[in-house]
Amino acid sequence: MHRALRIYGEVLRLVRRLPADTRPYYAKYARENFVNYREVDANDPAALHELFLRAYNHSLWVLNKYSVDQGAASKLKEICGGF
Predict the structure, then answer these.
(1) Is the CB of residue 63 less than 8 Å from the CB of residue 69?
(2) Region 58-75 average pLDDT
(3) 1-55 pLDDT, tens per residue?
(4) Mean pLDDT within 61-74
(5) What DSSP assignment string belongs to the chain?
(6) Is the separation of the CB atoms in 75 and 67 below 8 Å?
(7) Crossing angle (nearest 10°) for helices 2-15 and 45-65
(8) How many C-beta atoms surround the C-beta of residue 73 within 10 A?
(9) Closest CA to 55 of 37, 72, 28
(10) Whose CA is closest to 12, among 74, 79, 67, 76?
């Protein structure tokens, strides 16, 4: 749970790098996704890895969409497991 909260916090930090008019949408989107996946079994490493990888890849996609340097997600990558 602690790792998931760190990932959520880092995703919200990345949202702050987006254009101001898009931040509320992506902050809400991130929260909804983390809430929707709270039922994932914390004892299933494969499910957690897949979920963390999805969070990282989607974050990269959004950063790229708004031409934000993907290097900003390096901390998120580290928290997610380094892939």
Answers:
(1) yes
(2) 93
(3) 788 899 999 999 999 999 999 999 999 999 998 888 888 888 888 988 898 999 9
(4) 93
(5) -HHHHHHHHHHHHHHTTS-TTTHHHHHHHHHHHHHHTTTS-TT-HHHHHHHHHHHHHHHHHHHHHTT--GGGGHHHHHHHT--
(6) no
(7) 10
(8) 23
(9) 37
(10) 76
Residue 14's pLDDT is what?
A: 95
Write out the two tokens for 26. 């992506």
User: Which tokens go with 1?
Assistant: 């749970």
Q: What is the Cα–Cα distance from 80 to 50, expressed in whole angstroms?
A: 10
pTM: 0.87
The C-alpha angle 13, 71, 48, rounded to 5 degrees, equals 65
Let me know the angle formed at the C-alpha of 60 by 55 and 66, rounded to the nearest 5 degrees: 130
